[in-house]
Amino acid sequence: MSDDTGSWDRAALALRLLKVDNAGLGGAVIRMRAGPARAAVLAQLEGLSWRKIHPTISDDQLFGGLDLAATLESSQLIENKSFFHMQCHAFLIMAERCGPDLAAKLAREIDKDAGHLIVALDEGAEPDEHAPPALADRLALHIDPTGRLPEGWPATQAVPVGTVPGDPRAVTTTAADIETLTALAAVFGIDSLRAPWLALRVAKAHAALQSRKEVTQEDLNTAAELTFPHRATRVPETPERPQDPPAPPEDTPQDEDAGDSDALSLPEGDMLVEAVKALLPPDLLAGLVPAGTSRSASGMGAGQKRKGNRRGRPLPPRPGRLDGRARIDLVATLRAAAPWQPLRRQAVPAGTGLHIRPADIRLKRYQDQSDRLLIFTVDASGSAAMSRLNEAKGAVELLLAQAYAARDHVALIAFRGDGAELLLPPTRSLVQTKRRLASLPGGGGTPLAAGLQQAALLARQSRAKGLTPTVVVLTDGRANIALDGSADRAAAQADAEQLAQLLRAQKIASLVIDMSNRPQEALRGLAARLDAPYVALPRADAQRLTGAVSAALDG
Prior knowledge:
It is built from 19 helices and 16 strands. By secondary structure, it is of the alpha/beta class. It has three domains: about 5-155 and about 165-230, Rossmann fold, CATH 3.40.50.300; about 305-370, no CATH class; about 370-555, von Willebrand factor, type A domain (Rossmann fold, 3-Layer(aba) Sandwich), CATH 3.40.50. The strands form four sheets. Strands 13-12-11-14-15-16 form a six-stranded mixed β-sheet, sandwiched between helices. The chain has a five-stranded parallel β-sheet with strand order 2-5-6-1-7, with helices on one face. A three-stranded antiparallel β-sheet has the order 8-10-9. The chain is flat and about 75 Å long. The model is unreliable at about 155-165, about 250-265, about 285-305 and about 305-310 (pLDDT under 50).
């Protein structure tokens, strides 16, 4: 059996299991582009009550709310019903475009255990486009068949609703079954406890499909193959088999129990590991890079543009639904409804007042540009620290002179000894800056990780206040002080790389300036982990430093 045929067989089995236990499994992620193959897959779910959810669905459509048009027309309070007001299942189309807010709301519906089956149609064309993790973690199955649709697929027809051979809730399991699935999840680096719990439900559904009353090893194998491969975060290493020990002398007494243990040297757990390992995607490690972390230098030139409905430069109103957060543009709504009043009065002669339809609703829109915050994270260690700090002081003062026109804020963090210190909170005050930078001692080790940690904390706080942070790291050496304060160069480098990965995962723009006499490969690697530009400026003065920062941020 080829791997392509096997993937289609597993897809057919997963679809049958969804119909066997459409309440317990939560649902599935179907990662397929639109076409005949996906139509054939979705056809296997016929017989269930489905409704489609678009990623842009509003809160009043999802949870119900005030129907403004009907209320104005009837002069009575009329509310919309929620999406799940009746027992139904949901197709989330374009799941790769589903935002975290909608994912959290759908996840809450799944956690209610109300029997809603959610199928997320993931049409992502790129590896970093995928269904939201918060939602995918709650859906037991992942259907992603490869290759052409086999002729005559599926070989076995799906089990119709109401004719399930067994009830999954009546299938019994043992503590050993739970322990096996939990240990297997740990082997593949799956830290979510939902994974073994959902795998156990898949095993029970498979046992019910086979009219069994208790879970067997075959059910566990099937559950592991369908539930774990797409959740794995690492590939377990295959241990080398030890060489056979030399044969004991003939007169050496043999332990009867030893022979029994040798016969069980390859437990079923190892077979499960190999079965799941064979189904891991080939680009597993590449797929673990956080999605949406790729940034270009041109994206750091100014604060982010944000569209909202509260403040900023007014934009043309747009049609839409009121979701509790949007604000209605009354004038634009009346202007849209006015041309239709004669026709609507003819259609409803007994009606009084204005005739407003949902299509007439216009919502207010604004766009504002957040202020940018430059967080200078300066290395204040070593004998040449004072010269570097003087250069940084001059650069900060020069940038502050430009900040009044560009609406930029500047903050300064110095790291030396065994920690980092916030010397200058976000400000545009030149007088306050000069006072804070008047005197700063230098010397000691290079706690680069502590500096990055302080910068990440400040960036997160400033982003919550509406600023767009950019971290500028100035240093001339490698990290040699770990986060715990120990003088361990290897641990310090590992801590710095971990903090750099955190900054990148939080999509915080960064810039690394190497001010050593010769470019340092370690700093170049740090810039790569930050996904940030790397600028080598040996013996840079304040003017050159300011020019390099401005060119990197605006280029």
